[in-house]
Amino acid sequence: MIESVLFSGLLNLPWWGYVLVALALTHVTIASVTIFLHRHQAHRALDLHPVVAHFFRLWLWLTTGMVTKEWAAIHRKHHAKCETPDDPHSPQIFGINRVLWLGVFLYVKEAFNKETMERYGHGTPDDWVERNVYGRHSIHGLFLMGAVNIALFGLLPGMLILLTQIVWIPFWAAGVINGIGHFFGYRSWDVPAPDASRNIVPIGILIGGEELHNNHHAFPASARFSVKWFEFDLGWGYIRILESLGLATVKKVAPRPRFASPKPAADYDTLYAVIANRYDVLSRYAKSMQRTYAEEMQRLRHWSPGDAEVLRSLKRALLRGQALAGAEKTHLTEALKKSRALSTLVAMRQELGSLWGRSNASKEQLLRQLQDWCHRAETSGVASLVDFSRRLRSYAVA
Length: 398
Known about the structure:
This protein has helices at 2-7, 15-42, 50-63, 68-80, 91-94, 96-111, 114-120, 128-134, 140-153, 155-179, 213-218, 234-244, 268-276, 278-303, 305-313, 315-320, 326-336, 340-353, 363-378, 383-392, and strands spanning 46-48, 203-204, 232-233, 248-250, 258-259, 395-396. By secondary structure, the chain is mainly α.
């Protein structure tokens, strides 16, 4: 009798069947978050057919109780204030344990910040259903979902499935992505400091592609999060299916560098290609420095071992252009005085970065700056810098 009450539902499944159902339902929620809330609403990287968009809104109301405007506003603020005290959920500020395990409370706290909602919540749904149902009665969707679960699977399985649905997004999105995604993992792109975003793993299946968090921070307006050949973004696969059915339109994806024969001098197309592919440019610059670094380390080990040890201990910061402070910055500056080649490469990298950092410069000024940079690079006497400049002149507009 008790067993009948606890497990009696329209669908009588074995235990593993309930597990599969829970995983399937939570995966639909993951897809709704990454496709609708993240790529469509927060970043406008794609357009969705109204029927598809409303399905995602309904599903998220039933399974999470999240309000579209709140989620989009908080995420946009995260990008605008990344790793600063104003970032709603940075593990660099709040600590990894607090964000990983209690990130949902940071989200809820920020949702009550009216200034955040007004400044960053623009362009989100504001129709009758949003104002009077999804936004006003956000918690009621969970009750309805619970009732459906119990009717289909029985009291105990239904409640356990609902509990799984409730905790899934707070843990994986608010905890893992916002926490681990800014603390552990690999970086494909050296996004400007203090942004500490990481790719958690290269295969984005469990969280729908959100695992590729560093890629997303490098190209936030891209509908595709995978960039390297070995990366996989399941959310992008779903978007391509929707696009093939006429239910989605991709507006922008991360640029893939194209190359042609090096031009005698950089022109406007070269300038546009370099700026569009700036993270690829910096990544290739770091690789070009490795040859000179190895040569200089070999030379310094013989007559200045102390400086060689400083350069060895700070190799990653040196090659990737990471910001240093305090004693480390002082030690690196002194060590670079013993290597004209490395100090030239460091200085030229800073100048190259100003191409996309000078928002008030005209295109004519930026082109002259690029042409001058290439000329000085190719007359510097530093072989890796000469080769890199020639490569830079081969960037082509896609």
